[in-house]
Design brief:
Strand order of the largest sheet of chain A: 6-7-8-3-9-10
Number of strands of chain B: 2
CATH superfamily of chain B: MetI-like
Strand content of chain A: 35-45%
Mean pLDDT of chain A: 90
Structural class of chain B: mainly alpha
Largest sheet of chain B: 2 strands, antiparallel
Distance between the termini of chain B: 54 Å
Largest sheet of chain A: 6 strands, mixed
CATH class of chain B: Mainly Alpha
Radius of gyration of chain A: 25 Å
CATH superfamily of the largest domain in chain A: P-loop containing nucleotide triphosphate hydrolases
CATH topology of the largest domain in chain A: Rossmann fold
CATH architecture of chain B: Orthogonal Bundle
Order of helices and strands of chain B: HEEHHHHHHHHHHH
Number of helices of chain A: 9
Largest interface: A-B, 29 and 20 residues
Oligomer: heterodimer
Helix content of chain A: 25-40%
Number of domains of chain A: 2
Number of strands of chain A: 20
Helix content of chain B: over 70%
CATH architecture of the largest domain in chain A: 3-Layer(aba) Sandwich
Strand order of the largest sheet of chain B: 1-2
Low-confidence stretches of chain A: none
Distance between the termini of chain A: 44 Å
C-alpha cells in the first residue's frame, strides 16, 4: 500500500488555478521529485502536503489517515526550506533539538539523537555554533539534520540546493542521496533543476501550469517524454515534422530525404523528437550543413541547418575525425531513439 | 609662489572645510547652550540679588538632600517605566498583527497607529483630559456602565492618567521599532517551527519573540527616554501639583525664576537618561551579539 496518496488535489487562489487534478501515490522509501519551471504549482503542492496551505479540492492521505484536517504540527513531516529557515537565536544543536523538545523526548535521548543527527550530516563538533556563523552549505546541513532528527514519515525538500554554488550543490546531491538511501526516508523534492531531479529521484513528476505532464522514472521521462513540454524541459531535443506516406501498402515515415518504416497506427503529419546525443552522421539520411562546431572537452556540439529546420547533434569525443563547419552531412538515428507525436497543426 | 601642495594636508583641509557648517551649527545650538546650562547649575541665586555668577554646589546639594526632589525624580522614572511596559505589552501584539495584515488594511491600520504622531501633543493630551474629565468623564462612565468599577476613578492629576496618556502618545515608536524587527524575520521560520510540532503559542514565545527582542528593547529605550523627558503630557494631566522632572525644571525657570536650580534639575535628568540609555544599549548589544553578526 502506498504511504502518501494525493487524490485529485487542486488549489485555486481566487480566479487563478495553481494546481489542478494532482494525483500521486508515493510508496515507502521512494524518492520523488516535483520538477517544473517556476509557477508550475510544485511548491504549492508541497505546501499542501506540509499543511501550510489547504487544498481547494481533493484529498491527501498519509498511511490511510486524512491529512487535510490535521494541523501542520501534528503531521510529523520533516521539511527543509529553500531559505533553510533556521532559528537564528539558537545554536545548531538547539535548532536540531527543537523538534524533539516539542515531542517531549527525554533530555538524555534528545542529546544523543541531536549528536547523531549532526554527525550524520557531517557537522560533528559544530553543536555550539549559531547559524549566522556558518556557511550556506553548513546551514543547509543543519536544516537537514533538524528535519531528519524527528524521524519524519515523509521528508519534504523545497528547492534546498538552489542557494548553493554549483560545486557544493553536486556534493550535497550525492550526500543527500546517500543519507536518504541509508535511512530509507520517503522523500519529496521540489526543484526546477532537471539534472538534480534526474540524478536524485526514483520517480519524477514533471509539472507545467499546475498540471502533471508526466510521472515516471528519470529514464522514462527523458527517453519517452509524454509531451513536447517534457521533451524540451528535460534536456535538449530536436523536433522534425514528418509525413506518413502510404505507397504500395507499405507505410513510410518521411522527413526530407530521411525515411523509415512507419510504426503501426501513425497517420498524417507527425512530429519526430530525437535527443541530440542519439543522432550520428551517415552517408544518407536527413541532409544538412554544419553551421557551427563547438568543442566542449568530452564531446563536440554541432549546430546544423537541415531540410527540416535547425538541429543540434552531440558526438562523444572518441578520437574519431568529426565533420568540419560548412560540411554537408546526413543525420541518422535508430528507430528506437525517436518518439512520435501527432502534430497539433491541422 | 607655488600653488601645488601635497595631497594629504589639502585633503584634510577640504574635509574640515566641508564639515565646518555642520560643526558650527552643532556647536552653536547644542554644545554652547548645554555647557552654559551646566555652568548655570553651579551659580548662586537669591530672591533679591538674582543670579550671581559664582561657583558653588548649593543647588546640587539641595537636589540631592531634599526628599522633595527625590520624590519627583522617582515619579518621573516610575511613570516612564510604566508607560514603557504598557507600550510593550500592547505594541508588540499590535505590530505582529499589523505585519500579518495584507493589502489596503495594512496601510489603513499603519496610518491609525502612527496617527498620534501627526497630531500636536497638546491637542492630543487635551483630548485625554476631556475623556478623563472628573467623575462624569467618558472613561469613567464607560467603566461604570460596563460594571467594571463601582465608583468613579480619578484620572486627572494622577500618575495613572499620566501613564495612560503617555503610553498612547509613545505607542507609534514601539510599534514601528517592533515592526521593523518583524520585517527582518524569515517568514518560513514560523512554518519551520510549526512543522517540527510546535503549537502557535509556542512558536510566538520560543521563535518569534526572541528574534524581535532587540527591536522591542530599542523601542523601549526610545519610549522610556521620551517619556522621562516629556513635558506637555505631564504638565496637562498632572497639572501644577503632580510634577515630574521636566515640569519641575520649567517651573523653577519660569515661575520661581530660580534659573540655577532649574538648570541643575535639567542637567541631572539629562545625565540620568544618558546613563540609562547608554547602559541598556550596551547590555542589549552584548546579549544579542550572536544575532547581529
Amino acid at each position: 500500500m502506498s504511504l502518501l496518496e494525493l487524490d485529485r488535489v487542486g488549489k485555486s487562489f481566487g480566479p487563478n488555478t495553481a494546481v489542478e487534478e494532482f494525483s500521486l501515490a508515493v510508496t515507502k522509501g521512494e524518492f520523488i521529485s516535483f520538477l517544473g519551471p517556476s509557477g508550475c504549482g510544485k511548491t504549492t503542492t508541497l505546501q499542501m502536503i506540509a499543511g501550510f496551505l489547504d487544498p481547494s479540492h481533493g484529498t491527501i492521505r498519509l498511511e490511510g489517515k486524512d491529512l487535510v484536517a490535521m494541523p501542520p504540527a501534528k503531521r510529523g513531516l520533516g521539511i527543509v526550506f529553500q531559505s533553510y529557515a533556521l532559528f537564528p537565536h539558537m545554536t545548531a544543536a538547539e535548532n536540531v533539538a527543537f523538534g524533539l523538545e516539542m515531542r517531549k523526548v527525554p533530555r538524555d535521548e534528545r542529546d544523543e539523537r541531536v549528536r547523531k543527527a549532526l554527525a550524520l550530516v557531517g557537522l560533528a563538533g559544530y553543536e555550539g555554533r549559531h547559524p549566522r556563523r556558518m556557511s550556506g552549505g553548513q546551514q543547509q546541513r543543519v536544516a537537514l539534520a533538524r528535519a531528519l532528527v524527528i524521524r519524519p514519515s515523509v521528508l519534504l525538500l523545497d528547492e534546498p540546493l538552489s542557494n548553493l554554488d554549483a560545486r557544493l550543490r553536486e556534493d550535497m546531491q550525492i550526500e543527500l542521496r546517500q543519507i536518504q538511501r541509508n535511512l530509507g526516508t520517503t522523500t519529496i523534492l521540489v526543484t526546477h533543476d532537471q539534472i538534480e531531479a534526474m540524478s536524485l529521484s526514483d520517480r519524477i513528476v514533471v509539472m507545467s501550469k499546475g498540471k502533471i505532464e508526466q510521472i515516471g522514472t528519470p529514464q522514462q521521462v527523458y527517453e519517452q517524454p509524454a509531451s513536447a513540454f517534457v521533451a524540451q524541459f528535460l534536456g535538449k531535443t530536436n523536433e522534425f515534422a514528418a509525413e506518413v506516406e502510404r505507397t504500395a501498402g507499405l507505410a513510410r515515415l518521411v522527413a526530407g530525404s530521411w525515411s523509415a518504416p512507419a510504426p503501426a497506427g501513425a497517420t498524417g503529419t507527425v512530429t519526430i523528437s530525437v535527443r541530440p546525443e542519439r543522432i550520428s552522421f551517415g552517408s544518407s539520411g536527413l541532409a544538412g550543413r554544419i553551421t557551427s562546431r563547438i568543442f566542449q572537452g568530452n564531446h563536440w556540439l554541432f549546430q546544423c541547418d537541415t531540410e527540416c529546420g535547425p538541429a543540434i547533434v552531440i558526438r562523444q569525443n572518441d578520437g574519431q575525425p568529426q565533420p568540419d563547419q560548412g560540411e554537408t552531412v546526413h543525420l541518422i538515428w535508430q528507430d528506437s531513439d525517436m518518439s512520435l507525436r501527432a502534430s497539433v497543426a491541422a | 609662489m607655488s600653488t601645488t601642495v601635497s595631497a594629504n594636508p589639502s585633503d584634510a583641509r577640504t574635509g574640515l572645510t566641508l564639515a565646518l557648517p555642520a560643526l558650527m551649527l552643532f556647536t552653536g545650538v547644542v554644545v554652547i547652550p548645554l555647557a552654559m546650562t551646566v555652568l548655570l547649575s553651579f551659580h548662586d541665586w537669591g530672591q533679591y540679588k538674582g543670579i550671581e555668577p559664582v561657583f558653588i554646589l548649593k543647588n546640587w546639594i539641595e537636589i540631592v538632600s531634599d526628599p522633595y526632589y527625590a520624590e519627583m525624580f522617582w515619579r518621573t522614572f516610575r511613570v516612564a517605566v510604566l508607560a514603557t511596559l504598557i507600550t510593550a505589552v500592547f505594541g508588540v501584539p499590535e505590530a505582529y498583527i499589523l505585519n500579518r495584515m495584507q493589502g489596503p488594511w495594512k496601510g489603513l491600520f499603519l496610518l491609525i497607529i502612527i496617527g498620534p504622531l501627526l497630531i500636536s501633543v497638546v491637542a492630543r493630551t487635551l483630548g485625554w483630559a476631556l475623556l478623563f474629565g472628573g467623575n462624569n468623564g467618558l472613561v469613567n462612565k464607560l467603566l461604570m456602565t460596563s460594571g467594571l468599577i463601582a465608583s468613579p476613578l480619578r484620572f486627572m492629576f494622577t500618575e495613572t492618567g499620566m501613564v495612560i496618556a503617555l503610553a498612547h502618545a509613545m505607542m507609534p515608536f514601539m510599534v514601528l521599532a517592533v515592526w521593523t524587527a518583524l520585517q527582518r524575520l524569515d517568514p518560513q521560520v514560523e512554518n519551520a517551527a510549526l512543522s517540527l510540532g510546535a503549537g502557535s503559542f509556542t512558536v510566538i514565545r520560543r521563535i518569534v519573540l526572541p528574534q524581535i527582542m532587540p527591536g522591542v528593547l530599542s523601542g523601549a529605550i526610545i519610549v522610556f527616554s521620551l517619556s522621562a523627558s516629556a513635558f506637555a503630557t505631564p504638565a496637562i494631566i498632572g497639572g501644577r501639583r503632580l510634577k515630574v522632572a521636566a515640569t519641575l525644571a520649567y517651573d523653577e525657570f519660569l515661575n520661581t525664576l530660580n534659573w540655577p536650580l532649574g538648570a541643575a534639575v535639567a542637567v541631572l535628568l539629562l545625565i540620568a537618561l544618558v546613563l540609562i540609555v547608554v547602559g541598556s544599549n550596551a547590555l542589549i548589544e552584548r546579549r544579542y551579539q550572536e544575532m547581529f553578526r
